[in-house]
Amino acid sequence: MRPLRGPSRAGRLLRELGIGTALAAAAAGCGRGGPPASLGERVYERDCASCHGAAGDGAGPAAAFLDPRPRDFRAGRLRYHSGPPGSVPSDADLERVVLRGIPGTAMPGSRWMSEEERRAVVQRVKAFSARFREESPRPPAAVPPDPWADPWADPWGRAHDAAVARGRALYHARGGCADCHPSYLTDPPGDRKRDTKDEDGSLLLPPDFLRQRLKVADTPEGLWRAISWGVGGTAMPAVPEGLSEGEVWALVHYVRSLGRERTRRLWRPGGTG
Fold first, then answer.
1. In this structure, are 126 and 18 located in the same domain?
2. 23 and 127 share a domain?
3. Number of folded domains in the chain?
4. Which one of 35, 47, 212, 236 is least enclosed by Cβ atoms within 10 Å?
């Protein structure tokens, strides 16, 4: 078995603050005389317990300083997964979050981990919740084909431009997206519905796609699922009744176009996003 790699920057900072992972190990009862820790336990202690807690309750030593607060693994919930609403996340869903992190939160990616370590720590995380012992992940929810994306029939991207235009109209009107995600709007922040909370009572600030990266999906299919079915545990609802699958795809194209505009602004001289 290969040795564990070095700690993350967050882990090093926590050690410098005197609240390193040794505290989490003591709380877990992993001192001398106990059984040897598994790879997943050791990786969790090193990289996860400082925020998520030795017991997986989201109450690690650093949790009080983080907003949003770390996830409580005991509930067996994951907002960003590929299954239908209400399903427990799959191993692949959990491994993706561990690898890539969640933009806009304190959850970093973990590209320093080996694949073996990521798989092991996912099993450790699953052990905190009885849901993973009692339920099986449902198959990934089917996503219909994108009617706007056919590079062979539309080599110049005119259908994509039409999708962005259609998505923009829906976003600011019937789709209701701009009520929480205020891209391109100029009304005062206090007029927006941004004072929502998650199931744990933590304040949620819906991202402005011109200034923040997507939390939920880095693929068009993942974004389609989020728009269609909402994001569990947040104020993000399912798509309003009456919007067709093609119109949801138009919203996907528009939201992704905002992300590209954000990148362009960052690269402009003096750009701040």
1. yes
2. yes
3. 2
4. 35
Residue 105 lies in a domain: yes
Of residues 173 and 215, the one with the higher pLDDT is 173
Tell me the pTM: 0.69
Residue 236 C-beta-side C-alpha neighbours within 13 Å: 21
In tens, the pLDDT along 96-130 reads 999 988 877 889 888 889 999 999 999 999 999 99
Are 13 and 127 found together in one domain? yes
Structure-block tokens of residue 12: 């090093």
Q: And the tokens for 73? A: 């693994």
Q: Clarify whether residues 72 and 128 are in a common domain.
A: yes
* CATH classification of the domain holding 37: 1.10.760.10
pLDDT at 74: 93
Residue 18 belongs to what domain range?
9-134
Q: Are residues 122 and 215 in the same domain?
A: no
More confident residue, 21 or 258: 258
Three-state secondary structure of the chain: CCCCCCCCHHHHHHHHCCCCHHHHHHHCCCCCCCCCCCHHHHHHHHHCHHHHCCCCCCCCCCHHHCCCCCCCHHHCCCCCCCCCCCCCCCHHHHHHHHHHCCCCCCCCCCCCCCHHHHHHHHHHHHCCCCHHHHCCCCCCCCCCCCCCCCCCCCCCCHHHHHHHHHHHHHHCCCCCHHHCCCCCCCCCHHHCCCCEECCCCCEECCCCCCCCCCCCCCCHHHHHHHHHHCCCCCCCCCCCCCCCHHHHHHHHHHHHHHHHHHHHHHHCCCCCC
